[in-house]
Design goal:
By secondary structure, the chain is mostly helical. It has a domain of 190 residues. It contains 14 helices and 3 strands. The chain has a 3-stranded mixed sheet with strand order 1-3-2. The longest helix has 19 residues. The chain binds zinc ion (ZN). The site of zinc ion (ZN) has 6 residues, from helix 6 and helix 10. Zinc ion (ZN) binds next to helix 6 and helix 10.
Length: 273
Amino acid sequence: MNLLNTTSMFLLKRWYLLLSVILFSSCNSVMEMIPLDIDKNLGEQFSYQINESQSEYPFLDPEKNKEVYDYVENIKNQLINSDKIKYKDQFPYTVKIIQDDNTLNAFCVAGGYIYVYTGLIKYVDSESELAGVLAHEIAHAENRHTVKQLAESYGTGVVISLIFGSDYKELVNVGQQLLSLKFSRGDEKEADEYAVEYLYDTKYDPRGVGGFFKKLIKEEKDHNEIPDFLSTHPASQDRIDDINTKWEEMGSKEGDTGTEKHKEIVKLLTTKN
Ligand SMILES: [Zn+2]
């Protein structure tokens, strides 16, 4: 680490103190005191790594698949236009499609970088299910679950280096572990509930994410295989029940499933690639 001037030392001490508090408390008020720059910095580094790792995360050709990109982009835009999205001006909320039909997954890195696999797009039955998964992932970013988990899993030192951006190697190591980072059950429940809220402000059926979990559970029973999304997002009837309860509390609004539109997109995706 470079020699620190007095101001930096002061900041470092101040953050060290603050982050020590985080280890003992994960309450929201403490999270609110951590600057959003940490999420943004982490997201930038991670998206850079993904861009540079095209053998592992090959992007679907955007020119050849304009309709598919427009479709996913439109869903994402409807979601982030919800009044409940706090960081739409701070986070970029970009969405990229990874061409891999065998991976049933989607994720949103801290700071609002969304990735969705072609395997997931082809797997879901409707636009509202896809919107539900994206909403759930956006909720993880909005609620800053990654930074919260990092502070809890790796300790204050790593998070401090993220603030100062002083150790790129360490950032890379952290980035590589982000994908396997497991959120707590509480964080998953929170993301499910926010997904219902975000969807409620769109034309889609707000229970979209529940429909997706239902299909996953059935899949697990029939094939005895655990899809990627399930390894980090254990599905259960409890989760589906909680989603339905949240939906009822909000007024049980029904919306479009967009099943036909989704079929058209999957057909395009299959014929063009
Ligand atoms: Zn999740």
